[in-house]
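Protocol step 4 of 5: obtain the predicted structure for the target chain.
Materials: sequence only (see below). No template structures provided, no constraints applied. The aim of this step is simply to have a reference model before the mutagenesis design in step 5. Sequence pasted as it appears in the construct record:
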Amino acid sequence: MTEGSLVTDKVTSLIGQVSPPAILQVEAGAITRYADAIDDPNPLYRDVEHARKSRYGEITCPPGFFGWPIKGGGLEAGELMGKVLGAVFESGLMRVLDGGVDFDFYLPVRAGDTLVVYGKFVDAREREGRSGKMLFLTLEQTYLNQNGDMVAKARNTLICS
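Step 4 output (structure tokens):
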């Protein structure tokens, strides 16, 4: 860490940490409810017969939906984010802005899949803006299906000032 840097030793020490796995269950009804919520009428998300005749063979998830945590789970990635934000708050930065999410999709997620997701803190960098210094944090989630195949990767950016 350089003098006056927002990237503190504590923040740097967390880079590379991986959360314990969380298990997500993908259920057809949840897919349809999510599609309704985002107002997407695609029959692949709701019509079993249409989906079975498609190349996917089953109802699939809209991009960005990965099911729901199995009872009692799903907080694992949040614990890692809590550690990272705790270190950021200790350095005096109290404002956090969602800088967006970038997705890479590799395989379709289907009704009946069980996914495992791992969170990882991958980067912290400082930038100078018009209003002063800002800290950009990058967290990554990797989604694997029940066969161990990677179905998606998400990279979240948080902007702290």
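Step 4 remarks: The chain has four helices and six strands. The CA atoms of residues 44 and 51 lie 5 Å apart.
Proceed to step 5.
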